[in-house]
């Protein structure tokens, strides 16, 4: 017991640090260690760098400086809880934990604490129903949009007919990887394709068994929900069994430069979904280079600017900054609270004109969040890797997904959550 | 000078056999209980409960459970994570199926179910020993996690395979779900921990515990003097799994509020609890507490020092944590192979002689 007391006393002494007040605080629950660090590092860098850019170039948001305290989760839910508790006392306005498992953990907690969760392109898909999930926002796209968009792409390639085709979902055996299964099952019934799911256990450095099964079953398409080190392994294994790369489609978390580069030329043709633009030909990245990276204020070493996951971090930070601005507008105060931040997120409107002002014209879609719809438009494009040129390029337009299938699933899943937790609808 | 037996007269066998024979120890024990029950609950906030007390108490319960099996009965087990998962999923199914029943009963029944599963996987221990048994329990670990991932009935067919703890209360006080007050969460874990520790102490110093230790020290000799190895081993597996099941149920329902089998109850959890037991001290109740405190509090402490106070980048701090905690484990085990409990025992020996060592 003595040890515990000594430790507790020292923690107590250290916990009385200096909480940064009078700033707009957006904690970054990042992971720069562990098997998923390959994706966690550029995302956290992008998120932090955009906020730094706002401080350096614009003097913060509405004249108030932004601070991004980082807390390392290593994609571990227990550490995620610790990080949430450690940072929420600093006046956190919104959380973006970049982990579906941690998101599931935080949804009830953050709702009870009146702090919004922003989970773009991950997390609990049915949180798109704002009627039930008052504090969770997952615009502009979610996994079920992704699953449907991938099937739409496959439909296009096959002239609209998938009868008798074999599709494999190769997925991380965790909350994140299991998310698309209900939608794909429904779509399979609708279009008559045959769905097989093959799980990969954490952390996924060893996938011989999974690819042996794919080799045996010879599916027409492989959809892939992987993250971190398992992406590189999967693409390498696909190359090893000479699986045609243009029939291998990853979700947006499985489609970054560092995922395909280890497989070299053999990765050419690999496809991935995306809900935002690719490359660094947007003015905002020049600003980032000038005000943040060249000024030596970057969160990382600056080498990631313009890469897929870094861009996604920038995009997420931009949305939160815009929502904070909206909240300042609605409530007429510069120093907003987390409850006001929630209102800002709920009334956020992104227009093409605004995107152009931000130096991100055409980077993402136009949309408007509403009380009932926290999910955004779900517009998704397909990008393809070219190893020789060393870059991704979009091979389709940003298209919608099959909401006839998705909406009933969202309604059913959120209704089940509402019933389990006795939640009253918040809209109307 | 103050810490000694002299002058503390025992007038009955009961006094002679008490857990803390030295007056100062007894006072310390009652003061610790008083502070834990009557002082801390008034001061805890969310951070202290969720980051420090809840994980410490729950891991201490798990470590007590494993210590009974490995420390007292000598049966190596790598299945702790899997058994915690059994407790968690049993608790979830019970919470959802019988919402009106007090959560305390759910946790206890979840412990009972885990005990049954533990006994089933403990059966091979009658034939195999040591490393071979470790491999058999490792199979339990992988099988159980696979089962909870594969069979959708266990997670009520939810889309992502996650289980979420609905709001449940004890005597009208909410103890699970997001609206739990910090003190309520603290108290439920503390009550279970004190109950489990009390049970463990009394089992291990009675006939049951002596049988376990007999089996541990030399099973053939124990059998010759009349210990039934079947009963001894099975009871060790049952009691150990009961505790581990309670830990798993609390871990899911009270501490995390949501869990998935692979992430929350993977092989790393088994190793973590085994490390706690080894570092704390095999075959010691105090050791289970010390080991759990070391493994839970040390990383939090280091993180707060390195990131909070010294302002280091988070990834360097995270890597350093591994190096420091790993290094400390190695140093501890070289300097004191019998764990923190032995260190504490030696300190007490020295204290009895202090300040006149001759």
Automatic annotation (TrEMBL), chain A:
Annotated signal sequence range: 1-22
Pfam families cross-referenced by the UniProt entry: Peripla_BP_6
InterPro entries: Leu-bd, Peripla_BP_I
Domain Leucine-binding protein: 29-387
Cross-referenced PANTHER family: BLR6548 PROTEIN (PTHR47235:SF1)
Organism per entry: Aliiroseovarius halocynthiae
Record keywords, A-Z: Signal
Domain of life: Bacteria
Keyword Transit peptide: no
Entry keyword annotation includes DNA damage: no
Assigned protein family: Belongs to the leucine-binding protein family.
The name this protein goes by in its record: ABC transporter substrate-binding protein
Biological classification of the source: Bacteria, Pseudomonadati, Pseudomonadota, Alphaproteobacteria, Rhodobacterales
Automatic annotation (TrEMBL), chain B:
Molecular function as annotated in GO: branched-chain amino acid transmembrane transporter activity
Tagged with keyword Transmembrane helix: yes
Bilayer topology term: Multi-pass membrane protein
Entry keyword Chloroplast: no
Keyword annotations from UniProtKB, A to Z: Cell membrane, Membrane, Transmembrane, Transmembrane helix
Subcellular location: Cell membrane
Parts of the chain that traverse the membrane: 27-44, 50-69, 101-123, 130-148, 183-200, 237-259, 271-296, 316-335
Top-level division of the source organism's lineage: Bacteria
GO cellular component: plasma membrane
InterPro entries hit by this protein: ABC_transp_permease, LivM-like
Protein name: Branched-chain amino acid ABC transporter permease
